[in-house]
Amino acid sequence: METLARGDRTIVAAEGDLLWDRLDPFAEAVDAAAAGPAREILLDVSRVGRFDSAGAEFLLRRLKHGDGRVRLRNARSELRSYLQAMPPPEMFRGEMTTILRPAVSDFIVDTATDVVERVSDQVRQFGSLFLQFVYFTTIGPFRGHRVRTDRAVSEVVVTGIDALPIVALVSVLMGLILGFQSAAQLEKFGGESLFIYSANMVGVSITREIGPILTAILIAGRSGSAITAEIGTMAVTEELDALRVMGMNPVSFLVVPKILGLLLALPCLVIVADLVGIAGGFVTGVVVLGVPLSEYWRQTQEALHLSDVFTGLVKAAVFGLLIGLTGAANGMQVRGGSQDVGLKTTKSVVVSIALVIVADLVFTMLFFVGDV
Q1: Where are the domains of the chain?
Q2: How far apart are CA 184 and CA 187, in angstroms?
Q3: Cα(91)–Cα(89) distance, rounded to whole angstroms?
Q4: Dihedral (CA of 363, 252, 345, 119) sign
Q5: Calpha distance 272→280 (Å, rounded)
Q6: pTM score over 0.90
Q7: Domain 2-90 classification at class level
Q8: Is residue 120 over pLDDT 70?
Q9: In 3-state terms, what secondary structure has residue 336?
């Protein structure tokens, strides 16, 4: 703990974990500052790591008992959200919005600082996790760290096989939609005689873009969130600490099999999505638009190239890696209780989808430049 007196302002900087069995030094420093003549007491919690409900309750009570003199400073978004969502003590229920709201200038500075810290922490955690994954899958097996293939196969079943129905359903619907939309555009240029070219548009769109990105978004919402929730719950219940005590690395034991499962399952799901999506376009073209079966099949063969399918599979593998890393990184960042598990799970899905779209843009630009 560190206490700094600056004019009529006293800053009490907390450092470490804000847990129920470690509150005494911070409580003594805050009480000593409150007993002094300072008109304003700032509780700087920028260097606080983990926190629990007891630590949050301590902050809430000190904020109330300070009669407006005590304010939070540099609180991370996780801690501030937890404080705002936490039921306040009965004696000042309904007053927490005013107590927790910082001054406008402090809010701008705190928000900008918080955004920079969150992005840097995410990048650092993401990069560290990626390097550990590479180590445990390449160098680790030669140094006694076994790759748990049995767990990876189980993850393939959970991530891939169990997701087949929803992926197939959404893909066939997307193929039907693309068939109708392409026909509507082609009719403007040459009437029904151009309906045959809907096979080209459906085939290339599904294999290059729609199949990989749609499957990745579904898996991010279905499996990426599950990874974050599972690892986050283990962090809350101290199961991760138990693994470390037993001499087992959580990344090797939990994260590597999950990412390997995604790397194997996502390309397979994309192949299924491609086939089912093209079948949906086939139904629209042949059954609804009246394109001859042989002509539609021939046009699809001429439009599709092996490079189109390969492009989609490469994207799928990268998307699987991004979803797995994001889900695991957010799960291992859970602090506090079940409230933070929900927040990190939501964040995991949003960040995963955003990264998938950014990666798809990068791939599209690279392949476009290569085709030009």
Answers
A1: 2-90, 138-371
A2: 5
A3: 6
A4: negative
A5: 12
A6: no
A7: alpha beta
A8: yes
A9: coil
